[in-house]
Amino acid sequence: MNNGSLVLWYASFVLLAILGAGSLPIIWTTILNDYFVEHKGKAIGLTMTGTGLGALVLPPSASYLIAEFGWRTAYQAIGIGLVVISLPFVIALFKRSPNAVAKEANVSDKGVWGVSRREAMKSKQFWILGFVLFLTAVVIVGLLSNFKPILLSKGLQGGTIAWVASVLGVTIIIGRLAVGALVDRFWAPGVASVIFLLPIISISLLVWMPGSVTVAVMVALTLGLAAGAELDLLAYLTGKYFGPRHYSSVFGGIFAFFAVGAGVAPPIYGKAGAGGYSTILMISIGMMVLCILLFLAMGKYPKQEQRP
């Protein structure tokens, strides 16, 4: 339908963003908070692996369809696939927990606690979590979106970069599963600090040891782990610090930080890399260190979430 109109192009993507809001993690993790308590981290990690699987399956499938039938047919096939494959599962299985619905109806039920978004915004945890997720989104999305040109600038060849990048989808899945299991057993901000320490080490090596395939693989592995952990930690920490009663409202407020960071990251890194990526990589290391310090400043879980 678009024959070259830039306005229509922007309008299409605005409409896509609005209509696609129903597929954001806010929706899925709200339901998970209804059903799971003790194993919530595992449930979130397992559910969110779907994004990693999509990253493995959809790009080669789309490339094949574009090469064989053109990009218009590829877009149509993806849309039809969502309706035919995904929608029936959502209609049949995607339901609120009956217990959660009953507890919400009884506001005095002590089994469901939580603060409103207005109350959450008065706490330091809300702003710490929002700022740290903004920074992690900037770093991780910026590095992933510029992964190939960064490695090219460091002396690697295109063919080598292609297979190095292929490990990202796998490690995103591993990161989601591993973090989900760990946060059920240990203090989640501490787990986040350890996970985000790994890309700091590998990015530092990339700055000081350019052209090394081994270092490039380490960067891909650790970035994949951090990318896999990021949204899972966002969902888990929101539920832990602010409770399940108003989870979706609070999560939406915090997710806005992540969305802004992810939106501004690619152009920032692309422009910064015009003169070489070493400077922006060093800045990335500094931002990740700040993220770790902020995670550690989150403090203890509220008493409603502390286990005996």
UniProtKB/TrEMBL annotation:
PROSITE patterns: MFS
Domain of life: Bacteria
Membrane-spanning intervals of the chain: 6-31, 43-67, 73-94, 126-147, 159-179, 186-209, 215-237, 249-269, 275-297
Domain Major facilitator superfamily (MFS) profile: 1-303
Database matches in InterPro entries: MFS, MFS_dom, MFS_trans_sf, Proton-linked_MCT
Listed SUPFAM superfamilies: MFS general substrate transporter (SSF103473)
Keywords associated with the record: Membrane, Transmembrane, Transmembrane helix
GO MF entry, a single one: transmembrane transporter activity
Pfam families found in the cross-reference section: MFS_1
PANTHER family: MONOCARBOXYLATE TRANSPORTER
The protein, known as: MFS transporter
